[in-house]
């Protein structure tokens, strides 16, 4: 079985690799130092199991596991953690494997043998149970592969029937997430301007009336315009005054 090892600390990665090399039925297919690398390597190497550190800079292990769970055939995820007992109980509740640092050989072997494939509902429940903050990246499926878009590069989300267009610095992708849940998750950095649109606060360039007398937000840098519904005009005006 192929195992991907993810930890931001080189000594921890090396220890796990060394322990795995002593187990003949497991093969290390790659190592990653952060969550973004983990998602990309998981797609490239198609591991059966991922040993995932939780606390890593940038994208942490919980977010990386959520993205990995969207693969067509997601691997089992075993968290490697120094979390206190109440967090460990949360992992147990949602049937996601875990190993407590420092990892011992016999515990690693047992966890590998017991690893199951967490489904998306379990991953979502796990994220909520340990107070996960908003994601650092949005994950979209593009031509069969998962593409990660940094939230800081996103200009706006715009809903159209069952899909949401994510316009970002490098182009745009489609995702299937409710606009309402995106609004709740990214309330600190995005503002609703219409029932179908959320705009990144850093992308606001101003608000103007068009020839038809309707208000539009002008995006900074691109000059692109998005309609502001009447019910959101006051809130947008208040936000722009605060800049």
From TrEMBL:
Q: Does the keyword Repeat apply?
A: no
Pfam families linked: LytTR, Response_reg
PROSITE patterns (UniProt xref): HTH_LYTTR, RESPONSE_REGULATORY
Does DNA-binding show up as a keyword for this record? yes
Cite a single GO BP annotation: regulation of DNA-templated transcription
Q: Which residues form the HTH LytTR-type domain?
A: 138-242
Q: Which residues carry this modification: 4-aspartylphosphate?
A: 53
GO molecular function list: phosphorelay response regulator activity; transcription cis-regulatory region binding
Q: What's this protein's name?
A: Response regulator receiver protein
> Organism, per UniProt?
Thioalkalivibrio sulfidiphilus (strain HL-EbGR7)
Q: What is the lineage of its organism?
A: Bacteria, Pseudomonadati, Pseudomonadota, Gammaproteobacteria, Chromatiales
């Amino acid at each position: 079985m192929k195992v991907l090892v993810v930890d931001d600390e080189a000594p921890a990665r090396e220890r796990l690799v060394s322990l795995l090399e002593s187990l003949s039925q497991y093969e290390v297919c790659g190592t990653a130092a952060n969550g973004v690398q983990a998602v990309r390597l998981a797609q490239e190497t198609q591991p059966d199991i991922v040993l995932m550190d939780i606390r890593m800079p940038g994208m942490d292990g919980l977010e990386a596991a959520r993205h990995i769970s969207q693969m067509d055939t997601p691997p089992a995820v075993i968290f490697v953690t120094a979390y206190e007992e109440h967090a460990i109980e949360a992992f147990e509740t949602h049937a996601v494997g875990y190993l407590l640092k420092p990892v011992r050989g016999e515990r690693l072997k047992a966890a590998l043998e017991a690893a199951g494939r967490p489904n998306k509902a379990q991953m979502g429940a796990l994220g909520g149970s340990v107070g996960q903050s908003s994601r650092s990246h949005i994950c979209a499926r593009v031509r069969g592969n998962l593409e990660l878009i940094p939230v800081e590069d996103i200009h706006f989300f715009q809903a159209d029937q069952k899909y949401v267009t994510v316009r970002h610095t490098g182009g745009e992708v489609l995702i299937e997430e409710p606009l309402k849940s995106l609004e709740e998750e990214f309330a600190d950095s995005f503002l609703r301007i219409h029932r179908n649109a959320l705009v990144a606060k850093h992308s606001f360039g101003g608000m103007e009336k068009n020839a038809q007398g309707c208000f539009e937000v002008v995006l900074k840098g691109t000059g692109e315009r998005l309609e502001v519904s009447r019910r959101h005009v006051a809130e947008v005006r208040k936000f722009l005054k605060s800049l």
